[in-house]
Every structure is written in structure tokens, then in C-alpha cells.
Amino acid sequence: MASTSDIRKGLCIKYNHDIFKIVEFLHVKPGKGPAFVRTKLKSVTTGKVIDNTFSAGHKIDDVRVETRSYQYLYADGDTFHFMNTDDYNQITLEKSSLDSPDLLKEGQVVTILFNTEDSMPLSVDMPASVILEVTHTEPGVKGNTATNATKPATVETGARINVPLFINEGDKIKVDAEKGAYMERVKE
């Protein structure tokens, strides 16, 4: 049993007869009344995201998890195939259990959380950022340089990301995996 003071991003808890992963949280201490914790919870079984507020000191059932490194192999429709980097066993996961499946590149290593009680995969943690090549974007128009002007671009995984006007096809860019947003251009 844990309490609200133990809440952190990525913690898996049992709530309403399901297992949820904490996506966001905020400790709030209002000037009047008791403190509370506002959370955004994502179901690891359905992928549904809910908002919930826990009062300060509320007891929560945390789920014991272990992390393992897996390499992403390929996608087959809505099924994604991964291989354990230690013993080469393969597992398949549904698209709904992935946070940002459109940014997964073949050969990329991710961390998968497993429930220690039944060895079921709970969620996939992507690296903080991924480097992808731009496969299609319109050329930037000269003189069209208002502050923070962006244009849509398609990267090698098929994801669409807004990029600055100076990015061209063939450029490699660093993308924030959590937000799916452009971070910077990568020099070779």
C-alpha cells in the first residue's frame, strides 16, 4: 500500500478493478481546505485516459513492476512485435498499449513494464527523444518568415510533425517522443 505522497509519473496502480499508469500528476495545496493530488491515469488494458483527484493521505494500491529492454521488430496491422534483448524471446503488443506507436522505428530499443505477479506487459516506455528522417515536406517559401512559422512534414515512420520552414526532405530531426513535437535538426 502506498499513499498519495508516493505518486510519481509512470507509477502503476490498481484503481476501479483495473490497472492504470500515472501519466501526469499535480500536488495542490489550496489556501483553504485540505491538500489533494490531481492525476491523469491511463488504463493499461484499454488505453482509456481518465482524470482523477485523490485527497492527501489517500491509500493507493501500487502494482509491482519490472522493466525489461526490448527491440522493436515490425508492425503487423495493429499488432507490434518486440524481441527481448537478453534472451531473444519475442512478444506482441496491441497498438492501444503504446503511447506513441507512430514514432517507433524498426530496430529501436524500448523499455517494457511487466506486472511481477502475472508477467503481463503493462506499458511501453519510449526513449525521451527519437531521431527520424524527413521523407516528405513542402519547400519553405522565401520571405514567409513570421516568428515560429512551421509546416507539416512526414517522417520515415509515417508520422506527421510540424517543423520549421528551413527543414527539407532528407534532413534528420530529433522528435520529443512524449509530445510528438519537433525539437531540433540533427547534424551528421
Automatic annotation (TrEMBL):
GO terms for biological process: peptide biosynthetic process. Pathway: Protein biosynthesis; polypeptide chain elongation. Coiled coil: none annotated. Signal peptide: none annotated. The keyword tRNA-binding does not apply. One of its GO terms (molecular function) is translation elongation factor activity. Transmembrane segments: none annotated. This is Elongation factor P. Keywords: Cytoplasm, Elongation factor, Protein biosynthesis. Residues 130-185 form the Elongation factor P C-terminal domain. One of its GO terms (cellular component) is cytosol. InterPro entries: Elong-fact-P_C, NA-bd_OB-fold, Rib_uL2_dom2, Transl_elong_fac_P/YeiP, Transl_elong_KOW-like, Transl_elong_P/YeiP_cen, Transl_elong_P/YeiP_CS, Transl_elongation_fac_P. It is found in: Cytoplasm. The keyword Metal-binding does not apply. Involved in peptide bond synthesis. Stimulates efficient translation and peptide-bond synthesis on native or reconstituted 70S ribosomes in vitro. Probably functions indirectly by altering the affinity of the ribosome for aminoacyl-tRNA, thus increasing their reactivity as acceptors for peptidyl transferase. The gene is efp. Its main location: cytoplasm.
